[in-house]
Specification:
51% helix, 8% strand
Length: 322
């Protein structure tokens, strides 16, 4: 399996526990999105259930009997509690907004039998933040009375939002943002086809999270950032840049770059706020709130792309000059 780059302290702590006489039954993998927590959880699960290449293939296909991955799923339209088969899922179709309580009930039922191919079973919840309240309470019961041989790996981007009783039953592994060297290595490992210029642009755009950076691969994020910076630099007095960017990011073919713009614009404003103080800081923070809210609503509400880019660019143009 591909090695995880960065966060060596967390990796070493788990490896030491795995090599010791006792292994805690529940682990909380906490840190920002995109830093490798989910990848580490899958690698750790593979080590827990043992085996080799055949094991890895079974885990990748979610067919290993001693491996369970619980995440947001795609469900059959109009049918209650029926998952869409993996080989029938539509590319790009969004999963449910939460991990449903029925998924934890199914999990608890599967845990009533002992591991079948070895001494251990691995259960990944990715992300535990996505659990419905009822699902969180149901999971807590399993954490309080763990089935023999079962190790839980809970991925969390915001551990403070989890039930305190869930946190208290887990051993914490902290994951942090990667430095530039580890970011470059992680990106090249994930996609060897990336050229050096794009790697450099993605390192900057990822802000320490390779998973975040890879979302921008092939989208000319450097060009997007340059367009955003140019609008903010002089306010785009004749609206020429706003108009050009709005046209360029309109239409179905431009959807990926449009969504990247919705991510990059609030991030630009957040970075700009760090260089301001007094009234300028207050104005920039207000602009960030507006940009963040607009970005959050734009895709979910299917707002007009061209109009949204125009409005977002207006927020950028109105930023106070440093």
């Amino acid at each position: 399996m591909t090695s995880i780059i960065g966060n060596t302290a967390a990796q070493d702590a788990f490896a030491a526990a795995l090599a010791g006489d006792t292994l805690h039954h529940a682990w909380l993998l906490a840190g920002p999105k995109g830093v490798g927590k989910g990848s580490f959880a899958r690698q750790a699960a593979a080590r827990l259930v043992g085996g080799g290449a055949q094991r890895d293939d079974l885990i990748a296909a979610r067919a290993h009997p001693d491996y369970r991955l619980v995440e947001r799923e795609q469900w059959e339209t109009g049918k209650k509690d029926v998952l869409t088969p993996y080989d029938e899922r539509k590319e790009g179709e969004a999963p449910a907004r939460s991990i449903r309580v029925v998924q934890i009930r199914w999990l608890r039922q599967a845990l009533t039998v002992r591991p079948s191919m070895g001494e251990r079973r691995a259960v990944i919840i990715d992300a535990a933040d996505d659990l419905e309240p009822g699902g969180a309470n149901a999971l807590l019961k399993s954490l309080e009375e763990p089935p023999p041989g079962t190790v839980f790996l809970l991925v969390s981007h915001a551990p403070g939002r989890l039930l305190p009783t869930i946190r208290s039953r887990c051993r914490l592994l902290r994951f942090g943002l990667l430095d530039e060297a580890d970011m470059s290595s992680a990106l090249r490992s994930a996609d060897p086809s990336l050229d050096p210029d794009e790697v450099a642009a993605l390192v900057e755009a990822g802000e320490g999270a390779p998973g975040r950076a890879l979302r921008f691969a092939g989208l000319d994020v450097k060009g997007l950032d340059a367009a955003i910076a140019a609008i903010a630099a002089d306010g785009d007095p004749d609206n020429a840049r706003r108009s050009a960017l709005a046209r360029a990011l309109a239409g179905k073919a431009a959807q990926p770059r449009y969504e990247a713009f919705l991510d990059r614009a609030p991030s630009f404003i957040a970075r700009a706020a760090r260089r301001r103080s007094g009234p300028a800081l207050a104005q920039t923070l207000d602009a960030h709130t507006k940009a963040r809210d607009m970005a959050g609503a734009a895709v979910g509400l299917s707002l007009d792309q061209q109009a949204t880019v125009w409005e977002m660019s207006g927020i950028l143009a109105g930023l106070p000059r440093p």
